[in-house]
Amino acid sequence: MSFVEKVRVTVIGAGIVGLAIASALAERYDGVYILEKNWKAGLEGSTHNSGVIHSGIHYPPGSLKAKLCVKGNRMIYDICSRNGVDFRRTGKLTVASWEQESVIEKLRHQGEENGVPGLEILDSKEISEIEPLVKADIALFTPTSGIVDQSQLLDHFYSKFMRSGGTLVTDSRVDSVRKRGNFYEVSGVSRGGRFSFLSGAVINSAGLYAEHIARTAGIDVDSNGYRTEYWKGDYYRIEGDLAISTLVYPVPEDKGLGIHMTPDTTGSLRLGPNSYRVDEINFNVETDQEQFMTEAEKYIPSIRSYRLSPDFAGIRTKIKGNGFRDFVIREESEKGLEGFINLIGIESPGLTASPAIAELVLEMYSSIVDR
Length: 371
Prior knowledge:
27% of the residues lie in helices and 30% in strands. It is of the alpha+beta class. The protein has two domains: 6-47 and 152-227 and 324-369, FAD/NAD(P)-binding domain (3-Layer(bba) Sandwich); 88-146 and 231-316, D-Amino Acid Oxidase, subunit A, domain 2 (D-Amino Acid Oxidase, Chain A, domain 2), CATH 3.30.9. The strands form four sheets. Strands 1, 2, 9, 10, 11, 12, 19 and 20 form an eight-stranded mixed β-sheet that branches.
């Protein structure tokens, strides 16, 4: 690319969210580009996660996470069914002791407010009827939870984007976005050296690097609440034939949803993730398996009969601060950056919400260019 080249809209980051957005834009508009710093799409957060289709019980009513998760849940199942993407509607048990009953009641109430259908509180006998190996006093069952093959979903959005005439440029790391009149100068480094071109709009879906992109555009990330932190989670695969087919979660923690048991679309089972703060990005499993055994045996006492092997690790960006932190999805006209749309802190349930996020960003972009 040369500096004189102009494109309609540039999406930075070809993860599942970026590709979902780009494919929605490319269906309606020409001249849509995605820049991806890695050699192919989806190598970071999009494929280093549990692959869970969340129901929407965990997020405060009215939040973007709640609204986009519940809507995305319905959309994901429809997309998978129509396009041959592997998925399973497994349901989920959020298990607890009697001392934690109030947490289960709160989750059910919150889920119902968010519009999550079919929620049931189960006793120990009812839990055993669904999963005989799971031992708990009480559980919240969410029938709309499930799992999806993230790589196949990523491929679906990629194929849809390419069929619509979009352009994906890999091995291209963006290091600055600057306003130039009615355009944005997008600059960075690719295999061929430095590049710079003009774009009518920019969608910052850079995942782990989204805060950096926002800063290069001149946004004060601290005063706007865009400062993020990296939180890492390790996963272990369960070796052997453990007969569990439902998602099994403990009650959520402040740092995350807790170490849970997740089947995948191939029939394998894994434990994870844990959650710990990191300053550097690497995807190596760094936690000893004993932590996973200890947490899992609280609800699956027979887990120590099975061997664990390190599987993978994932890293998510959380908006810095205590308590609940919502997605940032914001068109920045009020900052003098018309057509610059930030997506920051897109952690869980970002996978589930991805098609709903794409619809929201398309509406934001269309409201600018079509008025």
